[in-house]
Write a structure and sequence with these properties.
Elements: H1 3-17, H2 21-29, H3 33-38, E1 55-60, H4 79-92, E2 99-105, H5 111-121, E3 128-134, E4 140-141, E5 154-158, E6 160-162, E7 177-181, E8 184-185, H6 187-193, E9 202-206, E10 213-216, E11 224-229, E12 234-237, E13 245-250, E14 257-259, E15 265-267, E16 280-283, H7 285-292, H8 294-297, E17 309-316, H9 320-331, E18 338-344, H10 351-365, E19 377-383, H11 387-399, E20 405-410, H12 417-430, E21 439-440
Parallel strand pairs: 1-2, 2-3, 3-5, 4-6, 5-7, 6-8, 7-9, 9-11, 10-12, 11-13, 13-16, 16-17, 17-18, 18-19, 19-20, 20-21
Antiparallel strand pairs: 14-15
Helix pairs in contact: 7-9, 10-11
């Protein structure tokens, strides 16, 4: 290499070596953790820069047992090597660690290592902790030192067991986001876990084991609540004035009450006042059926005055109860702007008559339902041209003077649906529309 080439190389090296710390930190923050560690070979000045990274993310949930992640540049040879890498990164790290995320399959052999990592992180001012252990076998029992992470702001646990907090635990006072999925916890343990929710903004409970009562006494900043799983025996939400987005999906239809001894019983729902101020509501099929029951329907607010978005992920069009609840929610929401509905039609021997009954029910309702004055966007998926589907679309088109767009997606899994596509479209285009600008796409 001539003198000029050597000088150019040295100049480029000097530029990298002498980057301002804030620029170097921004570069490192945008790199996957393994590439960030590799920057230590760039120059003497870069050798330990990665050791102050505040966010450490190890994401391997979509890979097989031999890789760290799907990107070939980020692969680890096996889980043992991954464990060694995490130890090296943690123990060479300097300063606070604000975020730690580990997502991996079949990691049971390394549970003792996770204990040590959590214990280490509890002393590093951790703010965001994500642990996703997608195991087919035994679940990991969370190490008790997690409860001493006083600065936690976001906590996500998947496929774990949460032990009862120690007596000294007084809640995660700075927690704003909580996601628990396929997590086992005792009733008392959960009660202690949520003992201080003064800053919580988002609560997500997905197929929890051992949780059959949702009793929140004080969550003044809670805005989002998601529950999916086996039906709860009781829902009680108090002092949740900011609650605006709620999604509730049951995997089965619950009993209305349960005897708990001494002649006392607990009702499934103390009250539904928390629904009255929602901006987004996403009820699942069984919760829709529940809302149609007389004793529950009487607890519903007469008007959902703030509701702007209704999201129905499973509307069985052969089920009059869920259909009735859906129509009730739509028609009692004067400020509704957007509706999403995924329709389902079961294939069984009784479906034909029930579909006919549902279509007749919707046709009859079209005469008694008033205008949906603010509805602008409707999306319906899973359409196959069945009678009640077409009647529901017809009803919405005829009652929505502000409608701008109705998006229809056919169920591609149905045999012969492509051949019916043009026929369905022709029928849709014949339906009368209250809006002069409404498009069907």
């Amino acid at each position: 290499m001539d003198g000029q080439g050597q000088r150019m190389k040295n100049s480029e090296s000097d530029i990298i070596s002498n980057l301002p710390d804030n620029i170097a930190e921004r570069i490192l923050a945008r790199l996957p953790i393994r590439d960030a560690v590799r920057t230590s070979v760039l120059s003497r000045n870069w050798r330990y820069k990665w050791t102050t990274l505040p966010d450490l993310v190890f994401d391997a949930k979509d890979t097989d047992a031999s890789t760290f992640c799907t990107n070939p540049a980020l692969k680890f040879v096996n889980k043992d090597k991954l464990v060694k890498v995490i130890y090296r990164i943690l123990f060479q790290h300097k300063g606070p660690i604000h975020k730690f995320s580990l997502s991996i399959r079949n990691f049971a052999r390394s549970y003792p290592d996770i204990d040590q990592w959590i214990s280490f992180l509890s002393k590093k001012c951790i703010r965001v902790f994500f642990l996703g252990l997608f195991n087919s076998g035994n679940r990991y029992k969370i190490h008790s030192s997690l409860f001493s992470c006083a600065n936690l702001m976001e906590l996500s646990l998947h496929c774990c067991i949460i032990p009862s907090p120690p007596p000294t635990f007084s809640g995660f006072k700075d927690l704003t986001y909580l996601w628990l999925e396929k997590v086992s916890v005792s009733k008392e343990g959960f009660k202690n876990l949520i003992s201080n929710f003064s800053k919580l903004n988002s609560l997500n409970l997905i197929y929890m084991d051992g949780l059959d009562i949702l009793d929140i006494d004080d969550a003044p900043k809670l805005q989002e609540l998601t529950f999916e799983g086996v039906s709860l025996k009781n829902i009680s939400l108090k002092n949740t004035p900011c609650l605006s987005d709620v999604s509730i999906s049951y995997s089965e239809l619950p009993d209305m009450s349960e005897n708990i001894g001494n002649g006392r019983s607990i009702s499934l729902i103390d009250n539904l006042n928390f629904l009255s101020d929602l901006k987004m509501f996403a009820p699942g099929f069984y919760f829709l059926k529940l809302l149609a029951r007389g004793s529950v329907r009487n607890l519903l607010p007469s008007t959902f005055k703030n509701l702007t978005y209704l999201h129905i992920t499973e509307l069985m069009l052969n089920d009059i109860d869920s259909l009735s609840s859906t129509l009730s929610l739509i028609t009692t929401s004067p400020n509704l702007v957007r509706v999403y509905i995924w329709v389902c039609i079961p294939s069984n021997s009784e479906a034909g008559q029930r579909l006919k009954t549902a279509a007749e029910y919707l046709e009859g309702k079209s005469h008694s339902i008033g205008c949906l004055m603010k509805l602008k966007h409707v999306e319906m998926e899973g359409i196959m041209g069945a009678g009640p589907e077409m009647e529901l679309i017809k009803l919405i088109l005829s009652k929505s003077p502000s409608l701008e767009c109705m998006k229809i997606t056919l169920d591609k899994t149905v045999d012969g649906i492509k051949g019916k596509e043009s026929e369905i479209l022709r029928e849709l285009l014949r339906f009368p529309r209250a809006s002069t600008i409404a498009e069907i796409i």
